[in-house]
Automatic annotation (TrEMBL):
BP-aspect Gene Ontology terms: tRNA threonylcarbamoyladenosine modification
Superkingdom classification of source: Bacteria
A Pfam cross-reference name: TsaD
Domain Gcp-like: 29-126
Protein source organism: Gulbenkiania indica
Protein name listed in UniProt: tRNA threonylcarbamoyl adenosine modification protein YeaZ
InterPro entries for this protein: ATPase_NBD, Gcp-like_dom, T6A_TsaB
CDD domains: ASKHA_NBD_TsaB (cd24032)
Highest classification ranks of the organism: Bacteria, Pseudomonadati, Pseudomonadota, Betaproteobacteria, Neisseriales
Gene Ontology CC: cytosol
Length: 222
């Protein structure tokens, strides 16, 4: 399939385009400038690939969880592209992409920093999510009973807490991983994620509350 994929769930902008054989990527830390940088970067990728947006089969995007603002920007961009070229959308959870990037068979625990002292996490078995993606404090993160690979970026942000809980457990730690658009292209091609009309685009927030109050911030500091 000819696809474009985008992820704006972290402070990176990740884009990828495939013509069915070759893959062209753009992965850059942009902070909060996703909206300003995404379309020019995507235009360059399409030109490099020799593709017009209208010639694609679908637009793939990271549904979340992740940055609240980033997810809204990504979903809006995906919808805009899909509407403009009359293309369907394929939404894929961000943790699914990280599990795929870990490249490990067997059990993978994906744990991504969710800020506010929490992590998004899910367990994957041979690439398939077991259950649902949840929001946890590092102390309450459910851990697999058998040997597993730890993937994501939570262990870097919450290293002391996670290392303490993981001491003595049979696990391997992957490099720091954040969702990359090229992984979405591979997942979208396996047929497990449905195509939907642009008007039905969904965002997977997981967390309803996106910020701490001033008193909660003070309590956390003390």
């Amino acid at each position: 399939m000819k696809l474009v994929a985008l992820d704006t769930s972290t402070d990176f902008l990740s884009l990828a385009v495939t013509d069915g054989e070759r893959v062209f990527t753009h992965h850059e830390r942009v902070g909060q400038k996703h909206a300003e940088t995404a379309l020019p970067a995507l235009s360059r990728l399409l030109e490099e690939a020799g593709l017009a947006l209208s010639s694609l089969d679908a637009v793939v995007y990271g549904q979340g969880p992740g940055s609240f603002t980033g997810l809204r920007i990504g979903c809006g961009l995906a919808q805009g592209l899909a509407f403009s070229a009359n293309l369907p959308l394929i939404g894929i959870p961000t943790l699914d992409a990280v599990a795929a990037q870990a490249g490990a068979s067997g059990t993978v625990l994906v744990a991504m920093d969710a800020r506010m002292g929490q992590v998004y996490a899910a367990v994957y078995q041979d690439g398939r999510c077991q259950g649902t993606i949840g929001l946890f404090s590092p102390e309450a993160l459910p851990l697999p009973e058998d040997a597993f690979t730890l993937a994501g970026d939570a262990w870097q942000v919450h290293e002391a807490l996670l290392t303490g809980r993981l001491a003595g457990l049979p696990f391997n730690r992957a490099e720091v991983l954040r969702p990359e658009a090229a992984a979405y292209l591979k997942l979208a091609s396996n047929g497990h994620y449905p195509k939907r009309p642009a008007r039905e685009a969904e965002v997977l927030y997981v967390r309803d509350k996106v910020a701490l109050t001033a008193s909660e911030q003070q309590a956390r500091r003390t």
